[in-house]
Write a structure and sequence with these properties.
Layout (H helix, E strand, L loop, with lengths): L5 E10 L10 E8 L4 E8 L8 E2 L1 E6 L7 E4 L5 E6 L4 E8 L8 E2 L2 E10 H4 L3 E4 L3
Length: about 130
Amino acid sequence: MAVTVIEKFTLCSLFGNDPKPSILDQDIYKFNGIKGEKVIIRLESDPVTVGSGKRATLLLAAKIPRILFIKTDQSVLPNEITVTLPATGEYLITVAEQPKMAKGERYRGAYCLSLEASQETMQTLKPALWVE
């Protein structure tokens, strides 16, 4: 029986620095996952204490034909999504600024996104769109 070793990979960026201030900042990352694998995605402010009580959106979606799979966490930082992947293929992680009308204070500033998964999956995490 093969043992899957879970590892953690982290990428850091800035949030709320989109050059078009009328549009909410979004950073999109992608990774290739394996059906049945448990993954943990975590969004934290950097440093962690700066985001205390503030909100951001963390969204995971499958980009796999005929698979409708979306999970989201819009709570106060740190945000976390823990799931078992429904299919093998590409997944998108969106880190998004919340609109001003959303409940609570929105977070803007440095953040770190981490993926806990098998080494095979973790190594595929990379920026996809709009990551400054």
